[in-house]
Amino acid sequence: YHQNFKVQTRDPKKVYSVDTGLWTAVSRSIHDDSTRLLENIVCVELRRREKEVSYFKERYELDFIVSENYKPVEAIQVCYDLSDPVTRERELRALGEGMDVLGLNRGSIISYDHEERLNIDGKNIDIVPIYTWLS
Q1: How far apart are the C-alpha atoms of 37 and 15, rounded to whole Å?
Q2: Which residue, 33, 5, 100, 113, is CA-closest to 62?
Q3: What is the reported pLDDT for 54?
Q4: Of 103, 77, 104, nearest to 90 (Cα)?
């Protein structure tokens, strides 16, 4: 996401698979792809809900910006497991930066099974398990 359409078209695109089962079957990755698969599920669901979806990157990358009429209305970060303090800090930092730059006061982190509500510097952040978010 960028307010300037020319910059938006210049930036690299992110690619998601409609079929995560096929992706898993043909993947040759030796790494744990749990967060990538979860991010893919979120993207497919946002598209199914007919949302305008993009990502945002300044210093840190924010997984999803949901827009209405080209105006950002929701910031979403995806992380499978937030139990590691370094990972948790990284995800909150990326979400916070995106919310600051885009003028949003609410954001979400979608995780595998963690649920929590935070208020950090006046920003409301909901950490939501994927099964709750999908329902």
Answers
A1: 12
A2: 100
A3: 92
A4: 77
Instruction: Supply 122's token pair.
Output: 């006046």
Give CA–CA dist 3/8, Å, rounded: 8
- Measuring CA to CA, which residue among 99, 8, 49 is closest to residue 109? 99
Which residue type sits at 55? Y
As a residue count, the chain comes to 135
Tokens in use for 94?
């990326």
- Tell me the per-residue pLDDT of 82-97, one tens digit each, with 9 for 90 and over: 999 999 999 999 999 9
Instruction: Report which DSSP code applies to 57.
Output: E
Tokens linked to 102: 């885009």
Which letter does DSSP use for residue 114 in this model? -
How many Å apart are CA 26 and CA 4, to the nearest integer?
37
Token look-up 């006061």 returns 105
83/54 Cα distance (integer angstroms): 27
Identity of the residue numbered 120: I
Q: What's this model's pTM, rounded to 2 decimal places?
A: 0.83
